[in-house]
Amino acid sequence: MPDLLTGYAPAEAAYDELLDSRGQVRAHWRALLDQLQRSQPAQLQQRQAMVTRQIQANGVTYNVYADPEGTDRPWELDLLPSLIPAAEWQAITAGVAQRAALLDRVLADLYGPQQLLADGLLPPELVFGHDSFLWPCQGVQPAGSTYLHLYAVDLARSADGQWQVAADRTQAPAGAGFALENRQIISRAFPELYRDLGVQHLAGFFRTLQDTLASQAPAAGETPLVVVLTAGRFNESYFEHLYLARQLGYPLVEGSDLTVRDATLYLKTLAGLQRVHAVLRRLDDDFCDPLELRPDSALGVPGLLEVVRQRRVLVANALGCGLLEAPGFAAFLPAISEKLLGEPLLLPGVASAWCAEPQALADVLERLPHWLIRPCSPAQACTATAGGSLDAAQRADLASHLGQQPGAYVAQAPVQLSQAPVWSGDEGVQPRAIGMRVFAVASADGYRVMPGGLTRVATPADTEVVSMQHGGVSKDTWVLGERQAPGEQWQGTRALGAADLVRSDPYLPSRVVENLFWFGRYSERCEDHARLLRIMLARYVDDDDDPQALAAVLQLAQHLGTLPNDQHGTLETRLRETLLGAEWPASLRVNLQRLQWTAGSVRGKLSQANWQALVELQRDMQRLEGREGDLGQLLDGLNRLMISLVALSGFALDDMTRDDGWRFLLIGRCIERLQFLCDSIGGFLRIGASDDPSALDWLLELGNSSITYRTRYMASAQLIPVLDLLLLDERNPHAVLYQLRLLLRALKRLAERFDMPGSADLAQLERRMSAFDLHSLENPLFGDGGTRAVLDGLAGLLDAIGLAAGSVSEQLSLRFFAHVGASQGTQSS
């Protein structure tokens, strides 16, 4: 046995994927083990670290509700793939494809003629008594006549090496995207081995999915628009939803992005409503339509089922497919297979029994310690119970419940998992229990099975429960040999010519654009407030230098609503609240949370580097929240936070395509900066500090123009040149006139593109600002009183510009995000 396996001790009662019954390495594992043996432990650690870095760089997460480490928990991926030889995989493929075809026919019968119920092959109570049977879907014939477009099955290997079905996933099966991401990462960790072993590619599976959705969509000659429907960023598999949408080339949408008009489904876009022909849903059945299925759902689309009923949209999987995930069906599938397919199941399921059958109940009660008792319906307020884990009194209580409501329970034999090697760092290679999820997709000639899958590892070592929600680790699954032709493409091979060129996203959801708009606003707001807070902290730490400058900036911050008033405690307490306050609505912490929220909603539009900058920004804020030191230490942390905030500006300017989404992001930043400059400079002019050089210094710093001023004038800050730089300099991006003209140009492009009126009020204010003459501050007609009047008038002009910018924001919201008017750019049939 190789030294690498010195500490490898497989369990005697479980099948070991790596070693045979004699303790010898199985043939299909030898090449991998040989390469591992030639590697030093440090090299393997480096490979695992590379895998971890790639996951972090790609932003691969699996959301865990109420996780103390945060909802966006990094995906866990083991360095060692799970290996399956081609001959063994052929048997798995045949069994999975057969089972998918069988379940599709069962769904067609249960929502159609219900002959299985009439023939006694399924008990009516098991079907009609289950919450997942959707009565409004009865008699609905889906477009394309396929119910089960995507199917997943959880497999486990028993001690004798036989693969068994542990569970069917028919509703909105998750994991195919994670399997693809695992493949791309692990194939780079072992590139030579991946090539030499002839590992089968996954591209054909996803290409078949694209073909199926396009061919079955009721497009009537139109180019079908397919969307991926997600429950949103807090769903546990949101990364996968986003990843699949990107890979497949489909818009990722939420229920609020869609609307039904005249029994037709539309996507809300900037250009109006665009008809949707197919929906790849990642949303549970009953949440999809609050009008007919679940009234309290805020995630679905009212009226969607009627569109399905009219066969004007394809929904994959068909609504109602979740019924077959109920554990009670497994006991009846062998007989149903003989009836519908004329052949036995190629992949057996774990032994199960529906307790409503008298003989089954008697067998279960006789051997209760050997069964796992599960509720038939997820609506039942009980969890799965292992009979062997109960004492005599508890077993008697369970038996009583079974006798009182036998139809509410299913008994299953405990699932036995095989073991596979995992890389455990300092412990080397160790055995862990695994389960495997395999995927199938409907095609024109039956079901096509993905040549691989999502292998999940039970952790810790002494458990056999595989759950990603409870800290599970995943593995890439390599099917060895018989690789398909290397020419198999992921995307379609249709030739594209000059007439096919597209330079903007025609299906950009209005919700995404709205969030990009607010992403721009919040990123600018956070940067502005962080700069103001840094000025206050710096002056507070060094207040012996110039207490008047500190008093002036505090007065301005309170005028802007950034700093709490005196009723909130001492100045130090108020400054901490401005930075870290969870309840203060204008705190930097709260605004960063708003920024992260909007960023999560537009993640598909952000580059990998941009997203990583946001992740680092979140970490910077978490480090600040954990600081217990004085304000000087907080100031040091705030300086680092500012670097991350400024980086976001760079990504917006240099890392995004100049499409409509980017334009709205830019408009959002522009409006926010313009309002902040107007409010800040106007407030500064009113507090009477315009003749204080120290106050003018921090005003330049607030306008991010200190270096420019020093370079130009090499003199102390004085009012007229400061106002010229912050108000009228057309080349200074932190000047009011610069931002005002930038906003007007952006609005003009929108008006030309979307046939909307321009902003006459804002244009008039721009002319007034351009005409402001700084000479009026040199020789006022009425001395100091005249200067005061000029400054007050200037402050009033800035107020008007800030209000007009806010009005533009409201107008854009009504025009592009609310969709109150009639549908535009649509077809009525």
From TrEMBL:
Q: Name one Pfam family in it.
A: CP_ATPgrasp_2
Q: Which InterPro entries match?
A: ATP-dep_Glu-Cys_Ligase-2, CP_ATPgrasp_2, DUF403
Q: Where is the Circularly permuted ATP-grasp type domain?
A: 81-458
| Annotated ranges, domain DUF403 | 508-817
Q: List, alphabetically, the PANTHER family matched.
A: BLR2978 PROTEIN, BLR5612 PROTEIN
Q: What is this protein called?
A: Uncharacterized conserved protein, circularly permuted ATPgrasp superfamily
Q: Which organism is it from?
A: Phytopseudomonas argentinensis
